[in-house]
Structures are given as C-alpha cells and as structure tokens.
C-alpha cells in the first residue's frame, strides 16, 4: 500500500507535471534552508505551479491529506517563515514560475503582477513608464512580490511611502482549502465590505498563498539628495531628524542609522570603505522629488546641524554614483554581519523618542549578561525601527540575550518585530510577551481560515492550541 507521501506526490505531479515537482534531496536543498543558514528543514517535495489554478489544486490536494504547506518566494526572509520542519512531510509551494508582470497603468498609477515576480524586475519595468514602486531593501534582487506582501516588508523608504501594506490595492489569494479569493482591484477607494486583503498582508503565508497583486505606484523621483552625516550621539540624531522633517517634509524618504562598528564590518568583510571614519554613529539621509531644489535644502540642513553641534562630519553626494556608493555601504551591513559570523537578530521598534532610552537599557542589560557581546546596530531610525543585532554571544547565552532584549523592548512599549515578521524565529517570544486576548484572537482567526491547520504550520501562531492557558 502507498503511504500518504507517495499518494500526495502522485497527485501533485498530476497537477503540475513531473517537471514541476522536485523531490530529489539535492534539488530541494536550497529551498529547505533559509538565507541565514539558521533553519534547516526536510520537505516532502517542492511544487512549482505555473498558474493560480494549479496553486489552488495543489493546496487542495495537501489539505485533503492533511499535509502542511509552506509557501515560498525568494527565500530571503529573516524569520525562518519559508523553511519547512524536518518531518519530511511538508510541501513547499514555490511561486518562482508565476512571475508575469500583467499590466502597468501609468495613469491610474498601478501595476498588476504575479506573486513570483522579483521586486527589482518590477521596479525596472515601471521605471520605463516613469513610475516608481517605492519598496527598497537590500534583498530586492531576489525577494518576490508575494513574499514582500506576506511579510508586509519595510525597508529604507517606509518613512515616506509606508510599509508594503500601504501599496497593496488588490490581491488574489489561494485559501487553505484551495478556494481562490479574487480581489484584483485597481481601486484607490473601495469601502465595499470588510477589507479582507489586509488579513493576508503580513500573515507570513499562515492564512493563504498570495498568487497575484495590484500595487500602487508613485511618480518616479527625478532628483535626489543623499548625505552621510556623523553625529555625536543618538539624541543629536533625533534633533537632526526633527529638523529634517521640518525642512524637507514629504521629500524626506530615508533617515537611516549606521554605527561606526557596522561600517568597520563592511570595510573588513565587503571591502567597502566609508567616507566618514571613526564616528560612533552615522546617518544616511535621502530626500527625493520630481522637482529640483533638494540639494540646497540638504546643504541648509547640514549647515544647521554643524552649527547646532548635531553633526561632527558630513558628506553630501556630488553625483548619482557617489549616492549609490553611500547606499552600498548601508546595504552591505547584513551580508557583512553574516560573513563575520552572524548575530542574534532583533528587529525592534519603539516610538522614536524612546530610542535613546532603549539603547541605554539594552546596553546595561547586555553588560550584565553577555559582557563580551559586540553590537551591530543599524536601521530605520526615522521609523523608530532598529536592527539590534548582537554578535559574539555563546550558544548558551543566546536565549537569555534574546529574551533580555525583548524584555527591554516590552518595557519601552515597543514591538519585537517591526518589519521581518515572526516566522518560526520569534514565535515563542511572541507567545511569551503578547497579551492573552490578542493571542487568543490570533488563534481563533487562524483556526477559522485554516480549519485543518495545514497552511505554514507553526509560523506566526504557535502550533499548540492555547485555548486553556
Ligand atoms: P520568503 O523568504 O520566501 O518568505 C517570507 C515569508 O513569506 C514566509 O513566511 C513565506 O511562507 C511567506 N511567503 C512567501 N511568498 C508567499 C506568497 N506568495 N504567499 C504567501 N506567503 C508567502 N525585510 C524588510 O522588511 N526590510 C528590509 O530592509 C529588509 N532587508 C533585507 C536585506 C537582506 C540582505 C535580506 C536577506 C533580507 C532582508 N529583508 C528585509 C527580509 C526579506 O527580504 C523580506 O522579508 C522579503 O519580504 C521576503 O520576500 P521573499 O520573497 O524572499 O519571501
Ligand atoms: C535592513 O534594514 C534589513 O537592512 C536587514 O531589514 C536587517 O540584517 C538585518 O538584521
Ligand atoms: Zn530593516
């Protein structure tokens, strides 16, 4: 008699064809491990559907047999959400083959794409029509639209344009029982009933598989001013931020913090050296507009910053190439950290005025429990979102450090996941720190939409039922 796995493989091959199902261990290896090489799973197979109909049939086949499904996009996620468990029974559904850009509307300023389209490819396509899809992150050459929506990705342009959620106008989603929710609307205004698409944005594949989306575009930025500024401390950085908002308003698109230690990592492991040396903290600021005059505004801002003592050094990019070189430093931080041995990652946010206090308290906590730790702190200061990455921690101390940072963040009324999601990396900490009412409601939502518990099990909502705790 055939076992369930063999029956499922047979059915899946019937749906997508033999070539669309990978079950060879070597072929599946890249899909079974996350970008950080931190989570290692063993899938039954990897299914690569070419149409929404095929995704729906594959999901229904898994649901009928009660086997877990793990949706996977570009596999650049930093929370282990796209990695299966090691049971050898879960099915990865990869969106790689569903990558068409279906329609660009430069007047309505929308783009309709399939979930497997790579962010950079979509950005290039809309740029040809003088439009911008304003999501920018270092993984944009691999991250897919479906993955960005599923994680409600942030990045360096959130300050001006919001998280991915703010750009989603319509979605097509395959539900955990194989039904298709078709809501591919190109509408900016649509109050007809519950806004169901919001349920799937940021739910990390735990409620359904995004197969296509309509995204909002903005006019392409024609002029930009980019500056790297050394600041003496965080409170000076915050004062500078307040002034930048006043001077540049909606043109301000990025206000990023990088530590001197982070720039040293980038120099050592990526061979890129910064124009500013020896500072504890640096900012990378960018403003963009269809209109000119930004450079002058940026010069005035820098002048004020020096006069007020908020800046100790600064570089205003003279050319696009120099601006790109400044961004390359910022975008190399994650890879440099990985090359240096990795870190315990904390993707925290607090109200921006609480950043200084958070850094002080977290530093005190670390000095107590892991004095040898090294920090790589950087991120989206303007959003109150820092990547508080702790390096050089022994395996034995890792859990205490992780919980310690999250306890500090909780005391500052912050979030333990500002933009990367919970995946499997943070799910137990979320359960530990989240209000019981919020936990129970999340569980109820998951159980209602995913009756058989097959959609990305163990991600976002813990696998154990919590009804009685
Ligand atoms: P995957 O890694 O494949 O999946 C991520 C999650 O989404 C998983 O839970 C998966 O099950 C689910 N999923 C994927 N596709 C679908 C789908 N079609 N339908 C339903 N669920 C799906 N993130 C930020 O927010 N800001 C940053 O600045 C940022 N910078 C990064 C820089 C680097 C160098 C790296 C490696 C990662 C970075 N990330 C950042 C994290 C990552 O790029 C984002 O989370 C991205 O959105 C993941 O997209 P993906 O296609 O790779 O998704
Ligand atoms: C970034 O801001 C990403 O560059 C990655 O969110 C953060 O590596 C990290 O911890
Ligand atoms: Zn980030």
UniProtKB/TrEMBL annotation:
The record ties this protein, via InterPro entries, to:
FAD-bd_oxidored_4_C (IPR004113), FAD-bd_PCMH (IPR016166), FAD-bd_PCMH-like_sf (IPR036318), FAD-bd_PCMH_sub1 (IPR016167), FAD-bd_PCMH_sub2 (IPR016169), FAD-linked_Oxase-like_C (IPR016164), FAD-oxidored/transferase_4 (IPR051264), Oxid_FAD_bind_N (IPR006094)
Tell me which domain of life the UniProt entry assigns to the organism this sequence originates from: Bacteria
Give UniProt keywords alphabetically: FAD, Flavoprotein
Domain FAD-binding PCMH-type: where? 39-220
Family, per the entry?
Belongs to the FAD-binding oxidoreductase/transferase type 4 family.
Could you identify this protein by its name?
Answer: FAD-binding oxidoreductase
| Organism this protein belongs to | Roseovarius pelagicus
């Amino acid at each position: 008699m055939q076992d369930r796995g063999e029956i499922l493989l047979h059915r899946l091959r019937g749906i997508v064809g033999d070539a669309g199902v990978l079950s060879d261990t070597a072929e599946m290896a890249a899909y079974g491990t996350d970008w950080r090489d931190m989570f290692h799973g063993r899938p039954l197979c990897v299914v690569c559907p070419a149409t929404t109909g095929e995704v729906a049939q594959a999901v229904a086949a898994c649901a009928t047999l009660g086997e877990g499904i793990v949706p996977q996009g570009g596999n650049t996620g930093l929370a282990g959400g796209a990695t299966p468990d090691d049971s050898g029974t879960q099915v990865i559904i990869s969106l790689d083959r569903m990558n068409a850009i279906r329609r660009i509307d430069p007047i309505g300023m929308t783009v309709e794409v399939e979930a497997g389209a790579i962010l950079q490819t979509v950005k290039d396509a809309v740029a040809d029509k003088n439009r911008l899809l304003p999501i920018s992150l270092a993984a944009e050459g691999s991250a897919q639209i479906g993955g960005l929506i599923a994680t409600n990705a942030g990045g360096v342009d959130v300050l001006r344009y919001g998280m991915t959620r703010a750009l989603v106008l319509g979605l097509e989603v395959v539900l955990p029982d194989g039904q298709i929710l078709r809501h591919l609307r190109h509408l900016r205004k649509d109050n007809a009933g519950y806004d169901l698409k919001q349920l799937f944005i940021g739910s990390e594949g735990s409620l359904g598989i995004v197969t296509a989306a309509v995204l909002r575009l903005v006019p392409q930025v024609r002029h930009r001013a980019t500056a790297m500024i050394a600041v003496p401390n965080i409170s000076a950085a915050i004062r500078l931020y307040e002034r930048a908002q006043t001077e540049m308003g909606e043109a301000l698109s990025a206000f990023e913090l990088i530590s001197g230690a982070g720039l040293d990592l980038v120099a050592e492991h990526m061979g890129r050296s910064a124009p500013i040396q020896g500072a504890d903290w640096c900012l990378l600021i960018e403003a963009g507009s269809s209109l000119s005059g930004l450079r002058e505004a940026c010069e005035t801002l820098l002048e004020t910053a020096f006069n007020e003592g908020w800046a100790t050094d600064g570089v205003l990019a003279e050319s696009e190439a120099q601006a790109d070189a400044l961004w390359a430093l910022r975008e190399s931080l994650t890879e440099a950290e990985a090359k240096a041995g990795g870190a315990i990652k904390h993707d925290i946010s607090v109200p921006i005025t609480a950043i200084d206090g958070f850094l002080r308290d977290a530093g005190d906590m670390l000095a107590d429990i892991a004095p040898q730790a090294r920090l790589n702190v950087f991120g989206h200061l303007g959003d109150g979102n820092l990547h508080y990455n702790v390096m050089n921690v022994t395996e034995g101390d890792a859990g205490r450090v992780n919980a310690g940072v999250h306890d500090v963040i909780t005391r500052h009324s912050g979030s333990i996941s500002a933009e990367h999601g919970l995946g499997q990396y943070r799910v137990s900490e979320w359960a530990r720190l989240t209000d019981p009412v919020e936990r129970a409601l999340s569980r109820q939502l998951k159980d209602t939409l995913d009756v058989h518990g097959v959609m990305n099990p163990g991600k976002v909502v813990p696998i154990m039922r919590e009804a009685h705790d």
